[in-house]
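hey so i finally got around to running the thing on that chain from the lab meeting. sorry it took forever, my laptop kept dying and i had to restart like 3 times. anyway pasting the input first so we r on the same page abt which one it is
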Amino acid sequence: MPVMTAQEVMDLIPNRYPICYIDRVEELVADQSISAVKNVTINEPFFQGHFPGNPVMPGVLIIETLAQAASVLILKSPAFYKKTAYLGAIHQAKFRRMVRPGDVLKLDVKMLKVRAKTGSVSAVASVDGDLVCQTELVFIVGERDGSDMKER
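ok and heres what got predicted. didnt touch it at all, straight out
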């Protein structure tokens, strides 16, 4: 039984189809860690162009999926209730394996540090126990409408 369903995830983060990638949260330890799942299917819109005849999930979308799992972890903290977690930086991203239709992408994210409005997580994606991607993500937490964020 999932800790959170896809609908509960959408109630928490602002992402919607076609860019809401978390299908369920399997484990969640508040302010510490999360394990979530993305079921990769052939009817994903990005497979139409990446790559026809050889469908591979783009690395940037694997990072986005990890960032969404991290957002759930961050926003489940009472300190960030009804806020939005924006991706601030991606450090040392490494890709080890391709992700294809039919794969179940497992996302494991651990909180490293949190400050007033920023923090970092370690994030790992795997398929069938094989490492797909590992990275450290930095996030900035702001208002849902972004009104407190400065344009860069």
